[in-house]
Amino acid sequence: MQNFIIVILFLLTIFTNAQSNLGSWNIINVNMKVNSKWNFFTEAQLRSLSFYTEYHYYEVKAGATYKIANDFSATSGFGSYNTFSEGGDFREPIRNKEVRSWLQINLKNQLRFFTLEHRYRGEQRFTSNGYKNRFRYRLGGTLPINKKKIESKTFYISVWNELFFTNSEPFFERNRLFLGCGYEANKNLAIQTGYIYQFDYKINDETGRDFLNIALLYNFDLSKKDEKEFIPTTSD
């Protein structure tokens, strides 16, 4: 618990330093495990450029994950992504309306107390400004604090960094960093919060650099087989 409090204080320090342009990044993720091989998910996000005001972005998406091996899986998904103009709540004109699909490979390394995740994604983006390809790589880690593994009533630390590339100049598009912590209430429900720093090489349909992130993660298990612990993670 002491370590968890230290993490919270660290995040509050970051939020205080970034409060002049701190936005909000809110996520609800529902994951449904059908059997030992298949998972289906849906996720909704709502973002603002200022602290819970000037809402400028929302997205909804769904997809499926197939487990190829214990720590190796593939994901496919699609969604709707909408970015509005700055200066108000969903202010028109809309800067970008996008329908996106993607294919993704997920690799996990289970260390002694630490879960390391590699995520490789290729996106097909049908935007208001034409078709675009994008490629993403995310390296993340999850560390339990008060227990040896993430299970019911576990506090945990979550960290990840993601790089975005395109197949056209300038090729490198974005870097996104997350530092946060969470609490898994039971094998079905977790809530986490943290700080997202986003650097855009060339801002196009997304603005803002610093966000307070709050995510509600629900895992709905139809298989009734508790094979491994529920590792809380978002789909995007």
Structure at a glance:
The protein is mostly beta strands.
Please give a structural write-up.
- This protein is mainly β.
- It has a single domain, classed as Porin.
- 7% of the residues lie in helices and 65% in strands.
- The protein has one helix and eleven strands.
- It has an eleven-stranded mixed β-barrel.
- Strand 9 and strand 10 form a beta hairpin.
- The protein is globular.
- The relative contact order is 0.18.
Spans of at least 5 consecutive residues with low confidence? none
Helix-residue proportion: under 10%
How many distinct beta strands? 11
Integer tally of domains: 1
The SSE order reads HEEEEEEEEEEE
What is the CATH C level class, in words? Mainly Beta
Structure classification: mainly beta
Largest sheet: 11 strands, mixed, barrel
Q: Give the count of helical stretches.
A: 1
Rg, nearest Å: 18 Å
From the 3D structure, determine the CATH topology: Porin
Mean pLDDT: 87
Q: Whole-Å distance between the termini?
A: 29 Å
Strand content: over 45%
Could you say which overall geometry the principal axes of the C-alpha atoms support? globular
Strand arrangement within the widest β-sheet reads: 1-2-3-4-5-6-7-8-9-10-11
CATH architecture: Beta Barrel
